Amino acid sequence: MYICKVQGKCVSTIKDEHLKGCSLITMQRLNKAKGPVGEMLVAVDTIGCSVGETVLVTRGSGARAVLGAESPADMVVVGIVDTYDCN
Q1: Cβ neighbours around 21 below 10 Å, total
Q2: What are the tens digits of pLDDT across the range 20-30?
Q3: Bridge partners (DSSP) listed for residue 75
Q4: Which of 4, 8, 21, 54 lies in the 20 to 30 Å Cα band around 38?
Q5: How far apart are CA 28 and CA 15, in angstroms?
Q6: CA 61 to CA 28: how far, in whole Å?
């Protein structure tokens, strides 16, 4: 799982049937200093997060378990983070 910062929304008028009803968001992973690092990523948002929020994201088979085995999703938001510590 990753801790990421939501950067924006990704609008898709046509998408896979398994993703209908879910929105897509753009985000970046956060480093230990809580700053964005790496490339921009896209994830399926099943919980309704907002731009600027810190979220918990799962990838791969964990993401497909949330949406169903037939889903093409590779990343899914599974929680909104209130606080976290990095030592």
Answers
A1: 6
A2: 888 999 999 99
A3: 59
A4: 21
A5: 22
A6: 20
